[in-house]
Amino acid sequence: MDIFDNKILCKLCNKEMEPVRIVKNGFPLRVVSCKKCGSKLIHPKDEQEYNEFMRLKSKTYKVKMRMVGNSYTISIPKQIVEFMREQERIMDDMVRLCFNEAKKLSLMFGHREDEEEK
Q1: What are phi and psi of 51, to 5 degrees?
Q2: Sign of the C-alpha dihedral, residues 110, 113, 115, 118?
Q3: Are both 69 and 91 inside the same structural domain?
Q4: Residues 6 or more apart from 70 whose CB is under 8 A from it?
Q5: Which of 51, 77, 84, 88 has the greatest CB tally within 10 Å of its CB?
Q6: Are 117 and 68 contained in the same domain?
Q7: Is 50 exceeded by the pLDDT of residue 53?
Q8: Which of 83, 76, 51, 81 is closest to 43 using CA atoms?
Q9: Do residues 39 and 33 touch, judged by C-beta distance below 8 A?
Q10: What SS3 state is found at 67?
Q11: How many domains does the chain have?
């Protein structure tokens, strides 16, 4: 049983809080919010995963670029892949690669249904 499956009362006004989902820095969080006073409470597990996300996000990794056949490869640090797998629960070994700016590449782990149609 999850803690958020129960009624949670606001400690400030003693009213029942309602579940909502918010996105903070691109990271989804389960939250309960009090409509009366606006106080919010983040799910403890989500808060722990968000803190791990922010820790990984703040790191800069130096990785080597290697030539394999006619393509270049880079290594993705194990910490990042393990975190992504934990978030997605099921993750393919395929990633989407986008050339965003002159000196910037993006990798998309997993997939979103709305992107599959494009």
Answers
A1: -65, -40
A2: positive
A3: yes
A4: none
A5: 84
A6: yes
A7: yes
A8: 51
A9: yes
A10: strand
A11: 2
